[in-house]
Amino acid sequence: MPPAPDPDPMLYGMCFDGSVVRGCGDDGRALHFSNTRATGHAGRAADDYRRARRLGLTRFRDTILWDEARRAPDYAWLDELAALSRGQTELVLNHYGLPEWITEAMFWGTGAAEAMRELAFQVARRYRGGAFRSYNLGVELGIWTDWIAAPPNGGKSRQWPFGERNWWAVYRQTSAITIAIAEGLKAGDPACRTALSEPWGWGDMPYADQARPFATVLGRPDAVADANECFTWQQGHAGLLDIVGLNIYFENDIPGMLAAARALFPDQQVVVAETGNLMRPDCHPPARWWAKFEALGEPDLEVNWSPGLTMLTHELGERMAGNLLDEDGTAHWRKPRGVGRSLRFAPRP
Questions:
Q1: pTM of the model
Q2: Helix (H, G, I), strand (E, B) or coil at 23
């Protein structure tokens, strides 16, 4: 009898990027799009999921769309995702963009948080029972805040609502909105699992500062925030966040990055919410980059590729390389059946 194949060393996933750009790019040109729509994913989700599963993927991330006229979630879209999910999809409630009927006055006051709490409640209540494996409160709360805030060295903010205020003034609002989303989800379905994903291991920022969005939602005391008159951590609590998602795009010390997150958040599941070879797709094809995580030998570690589908960049609105799937049906990676350590790179035709 032949030996059983080696068990897969991790759980493979990918992100159908749904980020929203509502402002301007690096060159000052106006940009206004949702990647869920701009990539065509909203019109062919069934095909995209079918192709992704053929690659051997079992974890997915997708993003809510809004029915602006009705000031409600786009339930036709969500019903389709719920059916496609098979309990494998994490649904994002905010990826840099709130519903466009939310006004600036609502954002800078309490109205946006109140509205998002109610909308999250409606979604979680409708899809109770595990249609979605988890809900993401906000992909990169810290970066969303950065884009709205005025740059510290002068200049204008690049994203709606263009407040021209400092980082902490914006974080008071964005973190309150994120906590409200968590509260609404947990009220709508107390059994649901919530996630947040943030850049991890980028630059020289101490982990305590990189971890602030997670800590704020969890209600952990924050002396630095208090000194900047930002007290939203007092609205959070330990029951609002189940999953700590790390967005890792630089090699650095991957075991050390995971260890740091697990030490800071021992009661939460730690996953690699995003990773990829965006910086050098020519030199780091998916098989080679993913092998860095396989080498950890953790069979329950979730590692999600981003972007799974070609997306438009936030900097200039151009197509990004390094994706696993193209709209034309081309696949740039495939996991061989039954073998976790022998991945191959499928080159572009």
A1: 0.93
A2: strand
